């Protein structure tokens, strides 16, 4: 029976409140309502279902005796008339009692949800920072197995309220034990198991539908363990930075596709020397270096297809051919020669990354 699942002392003063209403017509006082509120809060903390709590309060009213000892000498008709007159007071007292119980129960539930959300976000924050204090123990609470591989995706362009909606949608589809969502350094961060390949795509889909134009998603590589989560997060954030510096137009940038760039930047002095040696002659071009550099970028982005590059630039194919010939004459490097193309493309990428020309 549902009532048996409610602790016996939870509604200790309930019968007295109902009896007083029946005998005097008095409704529950402030102290009574506070007691009901606390009983509802306690029931929520104990995990008692709200339906069982309300059933217990109603069942107690059903079991309340129709009369009392003081009315024992009265005739049955008089007792019935008195009970009928006070019946509305009992119903009103019961309604207020149940309302206070439910209010206390719901407030306790909301407080528990807020505490859980705060703990969840604090855990994600510590995880992304690499703070190892009790990470494994806390991860188990949220259903994560940190020995597995995880992927971190980050989104830029966060709007107020967007985080909560996206988190609810992801949790509804994949479960709270599979995805963690938090805000870190102005980025919306999603941590998901590497085996849950659909999670990153779903994350990007919700970002696309809820973020303002200019949004972009960076995706780190799958990495194992707590340290791997930190690494994947940093890769995802770095992918956003590289995409901006390279002027990429794609919305979802994967760190795995940009692995060459950290290598290029590892020896900055060597990269600066390459850029200067190869591209400095373009600074002497009539009309400036800009159109020639833009043409090289468009041709490389189009895998050497000059017609596609011309469409991208909004010029004729003949203009692209002419500009490439000028590059060859000025620098001595031709995009048509495989070896020279590699050197020229690396120099162009370096120029974009290092914001060449320098003052």
Automatic annotation (TrEMBL):
Residues 292-348 form the PucR C-terminal helix-turn-helix domain. Residues 133-242 form the CdaR GGDEF-like domain. InterPro entries: CdaR-like_regulators, CdaR_GGDEF, PucR_C-HTH_dom, PucR_C-HTH_sf. Belongs to the CdaR family. This is Helix-turn-helix domain-containing protein.
